[in-house]
Specification:
The protein is α/β, with parallel strands linked by helices. Helix content is about 40%, strand content about 25%. The longest helix is centred in the first third of the chain and has 13 residues, at about 15-25.
């Protein structure tokens, strides 16, 4: 039986680093892991989706509608966009950050309101995090990805040392301590 995780966000938020870190961690736990990245216009702020599946034997990295155990979302609208991918009673870990998509930026639409209550009304467990504030507290607004990985880490029984080793292996040395702090802030929520 595989565990299915989706990591969703907007290009430039660090979702690809988060999926790399998670993949590294899982491989070092002797699990079969498949990671698949789907890019929108990620270089220009478009949506980015990464599928991470792991278990004893995994045949495909793709997570279909109603198959995700957990969605980790770097932005509120992206969480709402992918909510139908969750299993019944699935969990969404979402940074409450709002990044206006192009139609909102050019005045053709408004950013949707009450997205978190809407997801909760559908029966999903929603863990809403002020990821940006925690990342800034850690020392860098770009560390939201590690804050969210810290929150995600609480859903699994992997040793914290394994998470720290994955962080060290995947994060550039010059920002390692900031990212470790961001991870801890998320883990300790």
């Amino acid at each position: 039986m595989a565990t299915n995780i989706m990591i969703v966000g907007v290009g430039g938020q660090g979702s690809l680093l988060a999926s790399k870190l998670l993949g590294h961690l899982l491989l070092h736990q002797a699990l079969d892991v498949k990671v698949s990245e789907v890019h929108g216009m990620s270089q220009r702020g478009g949506n980015v989706v990464t599928y991470v599946k792991f278990g004893d034997k995994v045949y495909s990295p793709v997570v279909g509608k109603g198959e995700a155990d957990i969605i980790v979302s770097f932005e509120t609208l992206e969480a709402a966009r992918w909510v139908e991918s969750l299993k019944p009673n699935g969990t969404i870990i979402v940074s409450q950050q709002q990044i206006d998509p192009m139609p909102v930026l050019v005045g053709q639409a408004e950013y949707p309101k009450d997205l978190i209550p809407m997801m909760q009304e559908k029966g999903f467990s929603v863990v809403a995090v002020d990821g940006l504030s925690l990342a800034e507290q850690a020392g860098n607004s770009k560390a939201v990805n590690l804050v969210l990985m810290g929150v995600l880490s609480k859903y699994f029984e992997f040793p914290e040392e394994a998470w720290q080793e994955a962080i060290e292996a995947c994060v550039p040395a010059k920002v390692l301590e900031i990212n470790r702090k961001a991870f801890e802030l998320g883990r300790n929520l």
